[in-house]
Every structure is written in structure tokens, then in C-alpha cells.
Amino acid sequence: xxxxxxxxxxxxxxxxxxxxxxxxxxxxxxxxxxxxxxxxxxxxxxxxxxxxxxxxxxxxxxxxxxxxxxxxxxxxxxxxxxxxxxxxxxxxxxxxxxxxxxxxxxxxxxxxxxxxxxxxxxxxxxxxxxxxxxxxxxxxxxxxxxxxxxxxxxxxxxxxxxxxxxxxxxx
Length: 171
Description:
This protein has one domain. Helices cover 94% and strands 0% of the residues. It has helices at residues 2-6, 9-113, 119-169.
């Protein structure tokens, strides 16, 4: 152990310092390698998240476009049905106008052909025909308006149900 005493004490301190500094440097290099690997892993994770977000946004956009197309299609179908119903209502109103004209003609004819001898009976008959004719005209007019409103409401409701059913069926 003679040779140990020949080495001055400051050299031992220098050797210890070099060993400690080398150990610390090794730890730093290892930590830097782990940090680099973690950065690469983080970058990969961010790319995966960005890709997942892009796919989700594209899927959402596609679903939104599909739903809008379905709603537009049902809306167009409902619009065509409404136009058809309005055409039918106009035809029915035209026919009702013809019937009203016929009622007016019959009422006028009834007045002209009544017997002059039975004035009291004629007045009662005329007033009944006039009242009944007026009631028929008014009820016909109301029925036409109600039928039109009902048909519009029915078409709108069916279109709404169709849109909801199409949305539910593709979930």
C-alpha cells in the first residue's frame, strides 16, 4: 500500500471529482436520450390525436351533410305534395263554385215556378230553400278551407316524421 501514500491527497480528490462528474455526465446523457425519446413519443401522440380529430370532424361533417340532404329531400317531397294538394283544393273549389251556382239557379227557379195561388206556402218554401241553400254554401266553403288546412298540416307532419325516422335509422 505504499504506492497509495505516494499519490498526493489532492490527486485523490481530483480522481473522486472526475468520477463524480463522469457519473453525473452519464446521467445527463441518459436523461437527454430519454427526453428525446419522450419528445418523439409526444410528437407521435400529437399526430395521432390530430389525425383522430380530423377523422372525427370529417365523419361529423359527412353525417351533417347526409342529414341535411335527407331533410332537404323530405322538404322537397313535402313541397311537391303541398303543391299537389293546392291544385286539388283549387279543383275542388272550382267544383264547389259550380255547385253553388247550381244551388243559386235552383233557388231562383224555385221562386219563379212557385204557384201564385199558395202564396203562404210559397213564402215558407222559398225561405226554407233559401236558408238551406245558404247553409249548404257556407258549410261547403268551410269544409273546403278546413280540408285544405288539414291536408297541409298532414303533409307537414308526415314530412317531419320522415326526417326524424331517417335520422334515427342511421345512428
